[in-house]
Specification:
This protein is α+β, with helices and mostly antiparallel strands. The chain has a single domain (31-145), classed as Muramoyl-pentapeptide Carboxypeptidase, domain 2, CATH 3.30.1380. 25% of the residues lie in helices and 12% in strands. Strand 3 and strand 4 (126-129) form a beta hairpin. The longest helix is centred in the N-terminal third of the chain and has 14 residues, at 32-45. The chain is globular, with a radius of gyration of 14 Å. The structure holds zinc ion. Zinc ion is lined by residues 78, 83, 85, 127.
Length: 147
């Protein structure tokens, strides 16, 4: 399976150092599911910022992170290309998107999302990932975890 996003460019998903080292081959480091999930939410909620440091912004670790990164957990899903931290454009809020995912879990799972972080811990962004839960045969469920 592969997936090419409609709404995003590669640099939005990877740390600049990884992009500098691997260029277009960075697509190979990203889960198709997380790319599909980003497009799904973009289609519903409008523009989303992931990384933007390549364009003068402040975010560089909201997608695939370097192994040496000290942001987040040591074995964060971000380091495996399976997680994104999404920032939305007003009036859309992370809380609103979080609520939408939990109210539409079958749809979220169909678009690759298996996990969200508790929105109370991430008030200005929404963390989504597509980690492989051992109990993934639970038919319709998006897990809420702590960062
Ligand atoms: Zn995250």
């Amino acid at each position: 399976m592969s997936y090419t996003p409609v709404y995003f460019s590669l640099r939005e998903f990877v740390d600049p150092a990884i992009f500098a080292a691997r260029g277009n081959n960075c697509w190979q480091l990203l889960s198709p599911e997380i790319l599909r999930a980003a497009d799904w939410l973009r289609g519903i909620f409008g523009p989303i910022t992931v990384n933007n440091s390549y364009n003068g912004g402040r975010y560089s670790e909201s997608g695939l992170r370097r192994w040496e990164s000290t942001v987040g957990a040591k074995y964060s899903q971000h380091k495996f290309g399976r997680a994104l931290d999404l920032k939305f454009r007003a009036p859309v809020t992370p809380q609103q998107v979080y609520a939408h995912i939990l109210a539409n879990q079958a749809d979220a799972r169909a678009h690759g999302i298996t996990t969200v972080e508790d929105i109370n811990s991430t008030p200005t962004w929404l963390h989504i990932d597509c980690r492989n839960w051992a109990d993934q045969d639970v038919p319709v469920m998006v897990k809420v975890v702590q960062p």
